[in-house]
Amino acid sequence: MPILDAHTFEFISRSPDQTRRIGIRLGILLGERDVICLCGDLGAGKTTLVQGIAKGWGSPDDATSPSFVLVNNYRRPDGTELNHLDAYRLDSPADAVDLDIELMLGEGPLVVEWPERILEALPSETLWIDMGWLAEEQRSMLFRSAGARYDRLLADLKESMVQGLI
Length: 166
Hints:
With about 170 residues, this protein is an alpha/beta fold. It has one domain (about 5-165): P-loop containing nucleotide triphosphate hydrolases (Rossmann fold). It is built from 5 helices and 8 strands; from the N terminus they run E-E-H-E-H-E-E-H-H-E-E-E-H. The protein has an 8-stranded mixed beta sheet with strand order 1-2-8-7-3-6-5-4. The relative contact order is 0.23.
């Protein structure tokens, strides 16, 4: 796991299960208004990572791709929500505003796939994860933090991954 600097690190996942485990570790660390931006082509492993994030965050529901419904909501037993927005079918940041992205941010963490399509509607401080297909079972993951909260989140995630020997 080469560490590039305090704001970035790269990881190669060797299997979908490993990608989910990384997501679980990230989900455990998420706070109320955290925003995770997932970039990568179709098949890069974004939904697999979200499955882990939702589980680690505490949702009993299985995460699925919101490609056709745009937003999936995952609830914890305490009623708080994690929103999973797929911005691929949105034409502009205004579409995200129309979907009430501010309300989504107030309900709990927000995970956004294809965030570059709605960049102006997102907070400037976020955690970016660029994912890429390397081989049948392997995916690259480049984590980039923007803002002090996300620097801490990234440091905690790195520490959790090292301790867990993912």
